[in-house]
TrEMBL record:
MF GO annotations: glycosyltransferase activity
One Pfam family this sequence matches: Caps_synth
Classification of source organism: Eukaryota, Fungi, Dikarya, Ascomycota, Pezizomycotina
Protein's name according to its UniProt entry: Capsule polysaccharide biosynthesis protein
UniProt source species: Hyaloscypha bicolor E
Domain of life assignment: Eukaryota
Length: 411
């Protein structure tokens, strides 16, 4: 294991060594590739279509850190895939021939479009949580806060009113959950309805092979498009994409998020479902900006600047820090103190915003793991330290519904 004498920010403490898996990477990887059978709800699910060994090194480091932090507290970390001979193939955990679980395009392997791998992973999240429970996280999510402690206070506590743990990308008057971190017990009623609606969207027009155009489905009528009101226009290949078109593209790209927004805003008396009431009573939603996007807050979503700052070396002993080193220190300290995680952005966001810290770590292999840099200080903290307190949830409020009527019928 690597060791650096990095300063521990206030509000942070070192995790006792007996709670950490400090073995070499090769031994951790063996456990990740040969996980124990599912026995309870303390599961951390990831998906990478070609398997853990073919993941980008920086995302492998993310997953290893989850294992090092939580495996000794009873969590089993699994990276599922679609490799035919793999013991971690999704088909070994879920019935991929069941149309009540997967759309035809998933079964046939015909999911297409610009973001087929992302949309393939979207389709495994709810089925895994519904059958087994636990956490579904993107491989690009760096975990910072104490998941086990928060689980034990919320979803994992039978006396708690909270049944879902996630991030909310809106104010307390809005409901826009992120799909890169979803936590629940088995058979969650919100996620069960979300999955039914998601499958219905994929089944439209005889069966979809991508999410293109799903924003216009009558079943999502009334749900605001993502990014509306933001300056999201961009040029690509000599073509300009106007803001409204980009909002539609984003909404298609994150259809899964739009589905959650609809179900949370649905009152369906035929099904005895009151989404706004369920949300207010049972979802522990953390603010996604402070909770999982803080580096982007510090750098105004300037990926190259974030990469530059995180690549800096800490000042040598006795040397005064530069202005850029000060900014980098504030980023690392801020994330370790205030954030529950950090989501490295990829996918369509690159077309809209340009390079991100995640895309640059991918391009510059190993740049996130150079000892003595701010990036390495952050990684060190995510493996060895944890916060004194768990993050608070946004206020619980019952908001106006988007729809009154049956889930699968346009009205």
């Amino acid at each position: 294991m690597d060791f650096q004498d990095y300063p521990i920010p206030s509000g942070i403490h070192a995790i006792p060594s007996h709670l950490l898996d400090t073995r070499p990477d090769s031994e951790v990887d063996h456990d990740l590739l040969h996980p124990r059978p599912v026995s309870d709800e303390k599961n951390i699910w990831f998906f990478w279509h070609s398997g853990f060994t073919h993941m980008h090194p920086y995302t492998q480091r993310n997953v290893r850190a989850w294992h090092r932090r939580f495996s000794k507290q009873g969590w089993t970390i699994r990276v599922l895939d679609r490799l035919p001979s793999s013991p971690l193939n999704v088909a070994n955990f879920l019935d991929i021939s069941d149309p009540g679980i997967f759309p035809r395009a998933f079964v046939d392997g015909t999911i297409g479009g610009d973001y087929a791998p992302q949309h393939t992973s979207d389709l495994v999240r709810w089925p895994l949580l519904l059958k087994f429970g636990g956490v579904y996280a993107d491989v690009g999510l760096m975990q910072i806060g104490d998941l086990d402690r928060l689980w034990n206070q919320t979803v994992g506590n039978p006396a708690s009113r909270f049944e879902i743990l996630t991030y909310n990308a809106g104010s307390v008057k809005e409901r826009s959950l992120t799909n890169y971190f979803l936590c629940s017990g088995r058979n969650n009623p919100l996620f069960a309805r979300c999955h039914k609606l998601f499958l219905e969207l994929w089944a439209a027009d005889g069966g979809k092979t991508s999410t293109e155009g799903m924003h216009a489905s009558p079943l999502l009528k009334g749900i605001p498009l993502l990014g509306q009101g933001d300056s999201l226009a961009f040029e690509e290949g000599g073509k300009k994409f106007e803001a409204e078109e980009v909002s539609k593209m984003l909404s298609d790209y994150i259809t899964q998020g739009q589905v959650m927004t609809m179900v949370m805003g649905l009152i369906d008396k035929e099904d005895n479902w009151d989404g706004p009431k369920y949300v207010a009573e049972h979802i522990y939603a953390m603010d996604y900006m402070a909770g999982s996007q803080l580096i982007n807050v510090f750098t105004a979503w300037n990926g190259p600047k974030a990469f530059e700052l995180m690549s800096l070396s800490l000042p040598k002993a006795g040397k005064q820090e530069s202005e850029d080193q000060k900014r980098a220190r504030e980023i690392v300290e801020g994330c370790l103190q205030k954030s529950f995680g950090f989501k490295l952005a990829h996918g369509m966001i690159l077309r809209v915003m340009g390079d991100t810290l995640g895309s640059l770590w991918r391009r510059h292999d190993g740049s996130d793991d150079v000892p003595g840099t701010y990036a390495h200080w952050l990684r060190h903290g995510t493996k060895y330290w944890t916060q004194d307190e768990v993050p608070t949830a946004l206020d619980s409020r019952v908001i106006e519904p988007y729809k009154r009527g049956p889930l699968l019928r346009a009205e």
